[in-house]
Amino acid sequence: MSIDLAEKLPIAEVRIDSPLPQLDRIFDYTISQQLDNLVQPGVRVRVRFSGRLVNGFVVGRVQASDAGKALRPIERVVSAERVLTAEVCGLVSAVAEHYAGTFSDVVRSAVPPRHARAESLQYRVPEVNFQVHDLDATRWSNYTNGSVLLDRLSSGNSLNTRGVWSSAPAQSWYQDIASLVRATLVNSDGSAIVVLPDAHDVDLLAQELVELRDTTAILTADQGPERRYREFLRALRGSARLVIGTRAAVFAPVSNLQLMVVWDDQDDSLWESHAPYWNARDVAAIRSSAGGCALLVGSPARSVETQLWCEQGWAQSLAPTREAVSSNAPIIRALEQEDLARDVAAASARLPHMAWLVAKEGLKLGPVLVQVPRRGYLPALS
To answer: What is the pTM of this model?
Structure first.
């Protein structure tokens, strides 16, 4: 039975949901006049493939097909929501190619399953008063190139700015990230994404940026289907300019992305456990290269990969200054034989007298860690 096709761009390019590598390509389907307004790049559709209905994403519309055979029509549009943006679609393709995987395997991480009730909600764009704190500039002055980075972000001149950041001693990493986020959002209509290893880290940063909660979307693996899709839609529709989440948040569909931060890139949680086993740090690097957004990868001790970025000149090093290290690093003193010789009780004491005095003074300020070589010390020390 013939159908009336759409007058303009009547051919839809569809990526079907299949893990088979031989099907990892674009298939053409016709668009009827009834579905003309609904079939747009990024929407979910149902199409017939090999005699059965399968899910797929529309990735484009063209005037003519080069398939050289009769085309089947799109059966129906699952939802008019354009959940796969052009930028994320390109990112998914690049990640699949980089890791020798399929588009279908990667897009499952980028776009969560649909939830009709979450999709029916209205998401307003909140009015948030973004303010930079007085200590933000002070915190990043403790890093080489730190003040330059903060100035670029706050002025909106951060195109292709990339840094590898080693956190300073006695300085909270989530407070440092919060300073960068505030500087990014205060003077532009741009967005920011922060990728963290686990939900506990997400909670720490979210509490630090509590003043931005109305424009913050949280994306973690332990969320239920409805909440996860609701937070995803907040980022997609512009209700949230800041996305904080675990590894899949690296694909968040925010508009006008200005800053991406990946913390503790050596953590195994940032590796996808299913094929093609992508890493959030590398996905962020691919996205930064394609779109030009600023990228900062931080950790207590930088990884081999990020150190290579610095040596190749692809990223700048942001390390604590000598003054910051010397003023905040703990003083370490190893006991020598002379110290033990002056301690009359050293022969029978389990803990040298000097170490005991240091621990005693330390308890006045907070917890003290005593590390011993083997079991059996606890009863004697307590």
So the answer is: 0.88
- Could you identify the residue written with the tokens 């022969």? 347
Please give the distance of CA 366 from its chain centroid, rounded to a whole number: 34
- Cβ-count burial 181-217 (b if 16+ within 10 Å, e if not): bbbbbeebebbbbbbbbbbebbebbbebbeebeebbb
* Strand partners for 244: 194, 218
3-state helix, strand, coil in the chain (%, to 5): 40, 20, 45
Q: Which amino acid is at 75?
A: E
Cα angle at 199 between 277 and 303, to 5 degrees? Answer: 50
Where helices occur in the chain by DSSP H, the ranges are 86-98, 103-110, 116-120, 134-140, 146-155, 173-186, 199-208, 225-236, 280-291, 304-312, 322-328, 337-342, 353-362, 378-381
- 84, two tokens: 């796969």
pLDDT digits (tens, 9 = 90+) for 297-350: 999 999 999 999 999 999 999 999 998 888 877 777 777 777 666 776 665 666
What residue ranges define each of the domains in the chain, with the CATH number in brackets? 11-82 (3.40.1440), 134-326 (3.40.50.300), 337-381 (no CATH)
Alpha carbon distance 312, 185 (integer Å)? 30
The closest alpha carbon to 142, from 176, 118, 185, 189, belongs to: 176
Q: How far apart are CA 214 and CA 297, in angstroms?
A: 26
Per-residue pLDDT of 241-261, as tens digits, reads 999 999 999 999 999 999 999
- Please name the helix (run of DSSP H) or strand (run of DSSP E) that holds residue 58, with its range, or none: strand 52-62
What secondary structure letter does DSSP report for 8? S
